[in-house]
## 1
Amino acid sequence: MNKGRLIVFSAPSGCGKGTMLAEILKDNSFRCSVSTTTREPRKGEIDGVHYYFISKEEFQRRIANDEFMEYAEYCQNSYGTLKSEVDQYLESGINVILEIEVQGAMKMREIRPDALFVFIAPPSVDELRRRLNKRGTETPEIIEQRIEAAVNELKFMPKYDYIIVNDALEDAVSDFFAVIRSEQLTVSAQAEFIEEVIKNA
Amino acid sequence: MNKGRLIVFSAPSGCGKGTMLAEILKDNSFRCSVSTTTREPRKGEIDGVHYYFISKEEFQRRIANDEFMEYAEYCQNSYGTLKSEVDQYLESGINVILEIEVQGAMKMREIRPDALFVFIAPPSVDELRRRLNKRGTETPEIIEQRIEAAVNELKFMPKYDYIIVNDALEDAVSDFFAVIRSEQLTVSAQAEFIEEVIKNA
């Protein structure tokens, strides 16, 4: 059986990342890694689904135990990805998606060069603005802040492996699966098959 | 509009290359390059479909005119690929498939590093033998010669970009399309989009 692939998945807000992931996860060979955090659960958040909620002491103990693949501090809370959330699944043939923002992704480039880096982009910044306005849930100031954050994130696109434009959800999801399948067909991914065929020839 | 992609497509005999190509060519964004030859047409071969049949003098004139991307001699006949069979189609967004054997493919690596190299493999050499026997059209000696030729070709697999195992036709064709789509989503293929989005941000 083939090992799973670690996939770093980034998208600015308004790019439909959530709906894309929901579609992708209908395929049982994919799972999203669950992050661990020291912050308090928000209303509706479930331990083990949205995050693993642990105490600051427990977080420190796990750092000391070298249990994290990566971790960082935001607003006085710690967030991290446990190695156990990733490697055991990859070994059993499951593709593990790490949904992280661009800075974290760049860190991952160094820690896990075996990962696949996929960026979900809007068709254009104008379209992104239109989508964020359409939601109608944020003030114009907040929307402009989000646009600015998105533009900063878009500048990291050249550092990823693949860019998928989420114009129509169905196409974007099918593009994602094409990328994953294609990566399984590269000569390096097929090294074992090649060796086997030639050996038994 | 995006340019088409040049695809070098190789497969040993018995790998179902013909049926795969027939399926792929149902998609109008793909075409097979038609080779030019000085040999006589065989029964049922149509000029401009199976080959362009031209005289030895005409072939020499075209070599002198630098009209060939590549050409070679086999059994006192010349075979070649006209540049006009490739570049004008790529420019108009058509993906051009060059169906060539491994030696020719290795030459193409040098001439056209922009091409995508796809190898169609049998699930195993045993399965290849079974398929060739099943046809029942060749003598055991001919079959063994073909197996030997196939084994030699399989040794070139590591020099290709992608290996598609043709076990079930439908899966192999869908794998081929996944590879082509995925290549359109790489950061290098998306360079124009990235520039555009960032510029207009």
Note: Chain A has a mean pLDDT of 92.
## 2
Amino acid sequence: MTSVQEKIEAANQLVCKRMMEAEPVLIDVRKCLDVVPGMLQNMILHSGPPITWDRMGQPQKNGILGAMLFEGLARDPKEAEGAIRSGKILLAPCHEHSTVGSMAGVTSASMQVFVVKNQAQNNMSFHQIFEPGENMFTFGIYNEKILEDYRFMNGTWAQAMAAGVRASGGINLRNIIARALTMGDECHNRCGAGTYQFTLELIHAMSEAGVDAKMLGLFARTAKEHPIFFLFLNMAAAKNIADAGHGVNYSTVVTALCRNGVDFGIRVSGLGDRWFTAPAPEIEGLYFSSQWGKADASPDMGDSSITETIGLGATVMSNAPALLQTVGSTLEEARRYTQEMYELTVTKNPNFLLPAWDFQGTPLGIDIRKVVQTNVTPIIDTGIAAKKGGFIGIGLCRAPMQAFQKALVAFGEQYLGDADSGKG
Amino acid sequence: MTSVQEKIEAANQLVCKRMMEAEPVLIDVRKCLDVVPGMLQNMILHSGPPITWDRMGQPQKNGILGAMLFEGLARDPKEAEGAIRSGKILLAPCHEHSTVGSMAGVTSASMQVFVVKNQAQNNMSFHQIFEPGENMFTFGIYNEKILEDYRFMNGTWAQAMAAGVRASGGINLRNIIARALTMGDECHNRCGAGTYQFTLELIHAMSEAGVDAKMLGLFARTAKEHPIFFLFLNMAAAKNIADAGHGVNYSTVVTALCRNGVDFGIRVSGLGDRWFTAPAPEIEGLYFSSQWGKADASPDMGDSSITETIGLGATVMSNAPALLQTVGSTLEEARRYTQEMYELTVTKNPNFLLPAWDFQGTPLGIDIRKVVQTNVTPIIDTGIAAKKGGFIGIGLCRAPMQAFQKALVAFGEQYLGDADSGKG
């Protein structure tokens, strides 16, 4: 008779096998309402686990107000807030709609989204298209200039990308990530190699699709000025891979790590769509100006830790040493983080090799049992939003242990009935 | 009274200061005959130190024959060879014309060249523009298809680049190299990060200059397909930096390492334009197919070791670990090479920082005294040409000690007269 222990091992192997088979490809750029499952005209998606308006932090609130003005769902912030409180506007986590969102994670019905398809298992993932600036909805800022930028971006800019992506027959994100890992990206806060590769492929495709030279030049300039561009595709690809492993009974593998600026939430493959939460941690980091410090910083926020969920980001920062100075870390520390992650995970991903680790694969499949046992949680590198809104720094934090402990308790409750019968 | 020892130290510091100040910027794309100093209609430039036609290896001969057909200097190889033997066609090293050339290094009068200017000291350097294939003149291959490619490349392709470079006001190569070193390039056999950055900047500039979308798309595709593209600009930039330090009396710093497939030659800052040569070494490497081996390989060839001359290339391969498998090396070995190079050089270059070495600068200023003293010569990573022509592998070799010994003897002869008077 198979013991629970054996069932768990088999389930975790299956989850990792599916994650390794997953092959995320960007297949289209489309309007959110038309492609994101369960999306509604009067719905705004946000990052992290579910949260009510009243508990929400100011940067995320600001992002939502900005999105409502962009959508024409309200004439001013006061009306917008009234509509949310009255229930006319619905708030929901990106993650519950196959979507991820950076920082505030604000995604609304008429925003254009990247459409990513896993060629192996056919599951879809989404992220709204790039915001070509830093102080945007996602960092809790909105104003007339930003609304104007959103209109341009979701109009001709998105149309040009859509034309290119369709003409290309799909842009393979797994290949781009694999190569980016040989070029100093950790694929969360350092994304230049992904951005450059992706943009060149996109420019070639757009030229084939008949997009004009001026627009091609704009994409080239954007890639140089905003090397973070590819983060949103790293995130959509990571979500695509993580979801490929979600929903396997008996698996103790984590399939989402995310934060809304108040709560940190995790999901586990064998525990369905439940969230296990704990307070979002503070970030230890470097600020862009001496005028800012910890007192100004929002706690950890955003779905970008989906990259760490599948073993990218801070967990492999030791393979991207140029990032270390930016986040205030050292090579020695970074190597310890990677080593820890190898101890928390089920296997190594042969699709993503780390040159600085003698071409070993990235750590794959965070096991909540190992996290609780070793008393070590995954490390995350992340942007810092100001409490008032704005992008003020970059740093590191740890996923909170409490979330993993709660998940392990829930796992025991759900599966220990079976365990009894298998014990004899 | 200043001792010879002190004069040497001061001279070497000056050489390195000039090299560190040097700021190579791509300012134009022009016809070789119009810009390369001393170039003649009936002259063909080649890589490495001077060599006669009879002693020349077959790949370099083939490249020269191809270039003569391209120039219309002969109707067929036989006529071409006759013209060379009769002295109607002159052969000269690229290096003696402020130019460098990859592999065979063949550069002829009507070929378009990158024009690189050192913004600090105003010296100029040149390299013929990219050959968008691998089996070209430079690897000792010519045929009708290749001649056709050269016509296209030196026509509309070069015109588009020229328009972009002029519109940009100059593309700063030092900045691109600095960033490439944080993205896994060692800037000799791994150049993808440089290629991607450069191409995006160029595409943006070309779009401003009114180049059409189809051509922009072609550049984007070429960058993806030929990540080696930027090597020629790395080489021109390195030549620009090395020449900034050339010609300082009493300096024992090497300002050129190059090979013509038969001889390996070095130049030293304090020894004028003399070459010190030794037989070109064999390359230890990996072949692209099992049909090839050492017996098929030309000895070391090309001016690309100008990158190692200024402390890039194999000497810092430990900072570009993704290259290691390609050349058949290991991280441990590569770190030893970098450590050796720190011991052979005068200083560290603060313009080029190595993340994998805790952001220390690249080793700068190879001192022939230290080379001879430690009995260690610089390591070089390089492409392997077949004896018959063709690109068949990549590997590593050592600069031959004999060249450094000869240079040190010459240095003694030239400067020891002074030494006697300073000894008291």
Note: Residues 97 and 372 of chain A are 29 Å apart (CA to CA).
